[in-house]
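User: Let's play a game. I give you a shape written as tokens, and you guess the letters that built it. Ready? Here's round one.
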């Protein structure tokens, strides 16, 4: 019944595949898997540096793990288009702009099986989106220096998706508070505060940073530094925990703020990626 109510609002091929096709003259594009939902096939594409060198560190950018988080997808594409060759010869770039194409079209958090890919990045995942990305990245374990996963926190998290999650799991819905502004999620098991700060400093030039709430928290987690909270990435099955990279972070843009435009949201994601790569290259040994 839930799935029958999901409708297509935008087109993955028009919005994303066409943008990736326009990059083929400068980057290598590969299909690392596909998803078949109700007879419709969604190719999963990755964009790589042309002239990949095995001796160089890998910089990984993922977007669209949650399909409704628009700037995660379009920020990743904008970064590749405008800055994808900035560090040619210094690092290998791997960008997966839209991990969840079915959800992108339906502006949703879940896949058609009501599974959140971003709690299921592990071997044997029930999420086809997560399983395909885990398989793509498995040969790169130990070689990824930096992984930045591009997300948004939206008003619909509170108005739609958290109530739906409670209903799906048969639990009582407990209202929360959506932060107004950009923030980051560091890894509890491998905190990198200077790395996070470098990203916050760069993004603050583009859009505002989320303050803590009255409890000193952002979405229920203590703020450990301005605009930064921590999650146990691998334990929770989050995308940024896949590779065991030295430097990991999850961006959270707030597109519903009256103080931010859609272009600002994309620009904030681009600024975050650029700062993350620059910091990782300047501090390869931590």
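Assistant: Ready! My guess for every position:
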């Amino acid at each position: 019944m839930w799935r029958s109510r999901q409708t297509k609002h935008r087109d993955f091929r028009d919005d994303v595949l066409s943008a990736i096709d326009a990059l083929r003259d400068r980057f290598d594009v590969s299909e690392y898997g596909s998803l078949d939902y109700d007879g419709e096939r969604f190719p999963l594409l990755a964009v790589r540096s042309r002239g990949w060198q095995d001796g160089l560190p890998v910089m990984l950018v993922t977007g669209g793990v949650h399909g409704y988080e628009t700037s995660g997808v379009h920020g990743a594409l904008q970064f590749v288009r405008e800055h994808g060759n900035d560090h040619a010869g210094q690092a290998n770039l791997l960008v997966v702009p839209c991990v969840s194409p079915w959800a992108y079209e339906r502006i949703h958090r879940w896949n058609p099986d009501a599974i959140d890919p971003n709690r299921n990045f592990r071997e044997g995942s029930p999420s086809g989106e997560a399983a395909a990305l885990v398989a793509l990245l498995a040969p790169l374990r130990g070689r990824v220096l930096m992984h930045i996963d591009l997300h948004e926190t939206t008003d619909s998290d509170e108005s739609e998706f958290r109530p739906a999650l409670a209903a799906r799991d048969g639990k009582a819905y407990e209202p929360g508070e959506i932060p107004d502004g950009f923030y980051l999620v560091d890894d509890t098991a491998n905190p990198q505060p200077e790395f996070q700060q470098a990203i916050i400093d760069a993004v603050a030039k583009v859009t505002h940073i989320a303050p803590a709430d009255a409890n000193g928290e952002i979405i229920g987690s203590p703020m450990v530094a301005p605009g930064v909270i921590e999650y146990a990435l691998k334990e929770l099955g989050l995308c940024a925990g896949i590779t065991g990279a030295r430097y990991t972070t999850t961006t959270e843009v707030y597109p519903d703020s009256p103080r931010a435009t859609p272009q600002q949201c994309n620009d904030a994601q681009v600024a975050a990626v650029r700062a993350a790569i620059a910091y990782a290259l300047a501090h390869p040994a931590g």
